Amino acid sequence: MNIKEIQDLIKFVAKSGVNEVEIEQKDFKIVIKSHSEPKEQIIVQAATPIAAASVAALPTAAPASVVPETPAEVELNYITVKSPMIGTFYRSAGPDKDAFVNVGDTIGKGNTVCIIEAMKLFNEIEAEVSGKIIKVLVDDATPVEYDQPLFLVDPS
Fold first, then answer.
1. Is 65 a member of any domain?
2. Contact (CB, 8 A) for 48 and 83
3. How many of the other CB atoms lie within 10 Å of CB of 126?
4. Where residue 77 falls among pLDDT bands split at 50, 70, 90?
């Protein structure tokens, strides 16, 4: 496995929401662990150089998806509002302010749903859909990754 393939695997793990991926063959073992923090731990052990033929033998992982927690959520077609950037997620404009949105609130396109702080800049995140907030998927003042689900919205 070359460095580009390892980097692609790391990106896949980060985007998919999978916590850990382990690939082991006779010549090497790679374990990629992802935590809620935007850090990844990579352990690579190779006994001998790997031939190009062994890369083709690697099993391909199916893309992981966010699985709703209850059967009712599976039946409904919710829209996921995702983070457009890496940063720190805030539900309100300040510690003494009300949250932009709460579960049960109705939002429209262009409504501010949260703030993401990135490099000391506070970016207001606007809804791209109209609907009712069903679930807040991220705790206040926690780090978020690019494309991480933030809210579930019922568009009906």
1. no
2. no
3. 16
4. confident
